[in-house]
Amino acid sequence: MENNVTDCKILPGYKSDHSAVALNINLIKLNRGPGYFEINNSFLLDSSYQSKIKNAIKEIVEFNSESNPNIQWELIKGRIRDESIKFATYKKKESRKEEIDNLK
Known about the structure:
Elements: E1 5-11, E2 20-25, H1 47-63, H2 69-103
Antiparallel strand pairs: 1-2
Helix pairs in contact: 1-2
């Protein structure tokens, strides 16, 4: 966001040993990210998806057994996201393949 800052001033604080900071940001030029991840709930009923997620969680816990539980949780969430995206891509390809086969 540093490139979007148009002005920054340090102002004296009133009856405090801290200073106030005034920061102007140009939000019009701000580039948005890819958004947030939202899981497709129908995957939760698919047994192959369930097994992939269970295996991914087991791997993370085994490889990071000495890690802080908070770090493990963040790793698990990231891996679930990755596995979910891969699974969604696979399901989409399968669905398109079926549609093409049905048209023939």
